[in-house]
Amino acid sequence: PPLGGLGPHRPPPTPDLTLTAPAAATVPVRRLRAATSGSAGLDLILQTATDFQLPGEVHVTPTQVMGPVPPHAVGLILPRSHAGSKGFFVIPGVVHANYTGVLKVQVWTNPPQQLPKGSSVAQLILLPSLVPGAQHKERSDGGFGSTLPSDSSVNINTSCKPL
């Protein structure tokens, strides 16, 4: 063994975030169950493995859960409590009651890093929707800006530097 008897240098192990996944490829929100009687959210299990290779890269990763959330409710996609300590940062998201597609999680980390299929770094928290006077608008499985007008755009000023 090398000096000091510590043995050969090994990289730190990849965090194990794998949970038991449902048998079906996707399950409706209404069939999800909380992990414990005191759970505030429903765990979202990832459908695919995700490899992070570039700094600042955000991945939109599909889960094994599909909408809609219950009527008159809104879903908040938030990180599970351990995600940050494992180096994964979940960007919060909103799931509207009339969204019928697969729920997706936006994840950022410092590469190189991998989230295996079946991982769970996010949870869905269901809350009552209290928005008055909403217009009835059909919605389906479009997500991430699908209800914006087609002429809307986002301008990012890349010349600004963080403080």
From TrEMBL:
The keyword Hydrolase applies. Keywords: Aspartyl protease, Hydrolase, Protease. GO terms for molecular function: aspartic-type endopeptidase activity. InterPro entries: dUTPase-like, dUTPase-like_sf, dUTPase_trimeric, HERV-K_Pro_peptidase_A2. SUPFAM superfamilies: dUTPase-like. Residues 34-147 form the dUTPase-like domain. Transmembrane segments: none annotated. GO terms for biological process: proteolysis. This is dUTPase-like domain-containing protein. It comes from Pelusios castaneus.
